[in-house]
């Protein structure tokens, strides 16, 4: 058995939820010098550029989670504010992007998965995005792990979808069928100038939690059923976010998937699988 096949086999065999929640508890711990030592080792292992962080010293962070969701220096990620531009929501790397055809999204060569399943299983939820565009962006451990709005939007719905916690790194994406539609995830759907916009925050092995700015921690605890929350899109209680505003964060790395309707926007030239992304940079152009 090759090393890659062994790694994939271990993914199937590992008690992923148990391991992930245990790591999450450790990541929350405020263990003084031990926490600082762990953070320093992580910085060295993944060659993290701490000069970008608002607080550069490892000793500033009381817990590993606080370090992992560290803010960047003000102004370091300028937002493409042109009205016809969709901005990148995260630092990461494009895994796949393209057309949503017959409810299918490309995962990797030889693998695709269902949009309807990804968004929680309801046909009416997926219908506005059929024939539209999608993009999958992978956040590596070294990346900035706050997620920002690619356009102005008003929150319409949030959906929690239970699932597994496979790793979402490129090796796993190439070898585990239906990876993103089988992992635990949080779906946020916004009303925007291009119509509905879906932002899917996909959980993964040792992702301690997924948070949104309007509800705090959505998971853990992990559920066994799909849950959905509807939000007012008008009036004093609506939740409206501007392009570049933070909308959520991962504690340990994962993946964000965007989807928008047909004829809404086209990806800019040079936006292809493998492209490194920086939050706020131009990603797609809105059709007039």
Task: Characterise the protein shown here.
It is built from eight helices and 18 strands. Strand 3 (104-108) and strand 4 form a beta hairpin. It is globular. The protein has 288 residues and is α+β, with helices and mostly antiparallel strands. The mean pLDDT is 88. It has helices spanning 3-13, 16-28, 33-46, 64-68, 115-118, 123-126, 170-175, 179-182, and strands at 85-87, 92-99, 104-108, 111-114, 133-138, 146-148, 153-161, 185-192, 195-202, 209-212, 216-219, 227-230, 240-241, 246-251, 255-260, 265-267, 276-277, 282-286. Helix content is 21%, strand content 31%.
Please summarize what this structure is.
With 288 residues, this protein is of the alpha+beta class. It is built from 8 helices and 18 strands.
Distance between the termini: 53 Å
- State the share of residues found in helices, binned by percent: 10-25%
On the 0 to 100 scale, the average pLDDT is: 88
Please give the largest β-sheet: 9 strands, antiparallel
Radius of gyration: 18 Å
Number of extended strands: 18
Structural class: alpha+beta
Order of helices and strands: HHHHEEEEHHEEEHHEEEEEEEEEEE
Backbone shape: globular
């Amino acid at each position: 058995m090759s090393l890659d096949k062994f790694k994939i086999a271990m993914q199937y065999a590992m008690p992923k939820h148990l391991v992930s929640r245990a790591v999450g508890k450790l990541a929350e711990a405020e263990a003084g010098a031990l926490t600082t030592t762990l953070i320093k080792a992580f910085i060295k292992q993944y060659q993290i550029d701490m000069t970008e962080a608002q607080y550069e010293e490892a000793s500033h962070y009381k817990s590993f989670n606080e370090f992992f969701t560290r803010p960047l220096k003000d102004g370091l990620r300028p937002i493409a504010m042109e009205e016809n531009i969709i901005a990148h929501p995260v630092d990461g790397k494009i895994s796949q992007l393209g057309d949503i055809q017959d409810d299918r999204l490309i995962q990797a060569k030889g693998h695709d998965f269902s949009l309807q399943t990804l968004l929680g299983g309801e046909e009416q939820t997926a219908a506005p995005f059929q024939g539209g565009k999608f993009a999958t962006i992978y956040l590596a451990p070294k990346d900035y792990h706050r997620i920002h709005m690619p356009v102005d939007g008003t929150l319409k719905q949030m959906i929690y979808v239970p699932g597994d916690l496979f790793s979402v790194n490129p090796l796993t994406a190439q070898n585990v069928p239906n990876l993103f539609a089988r992992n635990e995830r949080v779906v946020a759907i916004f009303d925007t100038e291009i119509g509905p916009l879906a932002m899917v925050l996909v959980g993964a092995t040792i992702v301690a939690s997924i948070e949104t700015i309007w509800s705090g921690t959505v998971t853990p605890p992990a559920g066994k059923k799909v849950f959905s929350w509807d939000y007012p899109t008008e009036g004093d209680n609506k939740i409206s976010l501007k392009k570049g505003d933070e909308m959520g964060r991962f504690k340990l790395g994962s993946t964000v998937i965007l989807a928008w309707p047909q004829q809404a926007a086209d990806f800019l030239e040079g936006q292809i699988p493998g492209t490194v992304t920086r939050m706020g940079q131009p990603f797609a152009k809105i059709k007039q």
